Amino acid sequence: MTATAEAIEMARIAARAADEKLATDVVVLDVSEQLVITDCFVIASAANERQVNAIVDNVEEKLRLAGHKPVRREGTREGRWTLLDYVDVVVHIQHDDERNFYALDRLWKDCPVITVDGIGAPAPADDTGAPAPADDTGAPAPAADTGAPAPADDDTTPTADDTPGDR
After folding, report:
1. pTM of the predicted model as reported, rounded to 2 decimal places
2. Three-state secondary structure readout of the chain
3. pLDDT tens digits, 72-121
């Protein structure tokens, strides 16, 4: 037995909503073979409590607009690990520390991963024109070659051999 089409679509909506609020390591797992109480887990994490709450709010909003309401919410006050239970889909939004400690991904590693198009893609350049990260490591894209000389890396600390005109 695999997850229902409706559960998979709900999970994808939740994953995209989490990604919109810059959640990290967004994963959708088909747990229907292991659990009879739900079909999919959506797991996402954030660096701080405020971001966890922002992700939760966006997931709830997007699923509400799609016609779904959670039957249970847990952990919203603390902002460390919030669980949204939609019966067929359970959404886990965790602080990075809880994500690493409880390691739900490892516990459910035997479950198939459901791909979600459009998540984890580099963000477009911001309003300042700064380039988006080049890859998932967060490293910036290489700067364009403008032909200008590179800044000198030499030490400009004066020494006893320097004369005022040498600096």
Report:
1. 0.72
2. CCCCHHHHHHHHHHHHHHHHCCCEEEEEEECCCCCCCCCEEEEEEECCHHHHHHHHHHHHHHHHHCCCCCCEEECCCCCCEEEEECCCEEEEEEEHHHHHHHCHHHHCCCCCECCCCCCCCCCCCCCCCCCCECCCCCCECCCCCCCCCCCCCCCCCCCCCCCHHHC
3. 999 988 999 999 999 999 999 999 999 999 999 999 999 999 999 988 75
How long is the chain?
Answer: 167
Residue with tokens 């709010």: 57
Q: Which residue type sits at 38? A: T
**The tokens of 102 are what?**
């409880």
Tokens 């380039």 identify what position?
131
Q: Quick one: tokens of 117?
A: 């198009």
